[in-house]
Amino acid sequence: MFRDNTEALKCRVLYMKYMTELLTTNNLEYDEHRVSSWSTHMIISPEFEWNKIERDGEIIGFVIINNSPDFSDNIDVYIEDVYIKPEYRRRGIVTGVIKQVLEKYKGKYIGLSVINTNQVARLFWLSIFSSLNVLPETAINEHLTDMYFKMGD
Question: Are strands 144-150 and 48-55 parallel, antiparallel or unpaired?
């Protein structure tokens, strides 16, 4: 998980930056106290697997997996959050990490949600699905599109 408390703190700070960017960019309510509480929970709870993305000793992003999603009987794991610093985007880094992470979940049902107004994320996930030869089931809600798929064996 984390090598030490300093690394956990760096991930939490990066997560807070990510949430600020995500919510404000998509014109959604940002409650700093709620985001802070949630980020602390994600750091200390064993059901969250942090796949850190590092370059030259610096944490530049993450893929967070929830190994115990309790909101659906049909989902084995849930891709909670994906982030990479802007200066590292569009280089294929996150795509490679996601494919590596998903290899561990062959034969499992995986879920994720994308904010409806986040077209970049929607196109990103469609390209991931295409490269993996999977067709996700989708459910569109007021603010989110939920996607579910089974990783091939």
Answer: unpaired
Q: DSSP E strands: which ranges in the chain?
A: 48-55, 58-66, 77-84, 109-115, 137-140, 144-150
Residues 6+ apart with CB under 8 A from 73: none
73 alpha-carbon distance from chain centroid: 20
Summarised one tens digit per residue, pLDDT across range 141-152 is 888 888 888 887
Q: Tens digits of per-residue pLDDT, 60-91?
A: 999 999 988 776 677 889 999 999 999 999 89
Return the amino acid letter for 110: I
User: In this structure, what token pair is assigned to residue 125?
Assistant: 């996930």
Token duo for residue 117: 């107004």
Strand 77-84's sheet: what is its strand order? 48-55, 58-66, 77-84, 109-115, 144-150, 137-140
CA 123, 42, 85 angle in degrees (round to 5)? 45
Buried b (16+ CB within 10 A) or exposed e, 69-92: beeeeebbbbbbbbbbbeeeeeee
CB-CB contact of 65 with 112 (8 Å): no
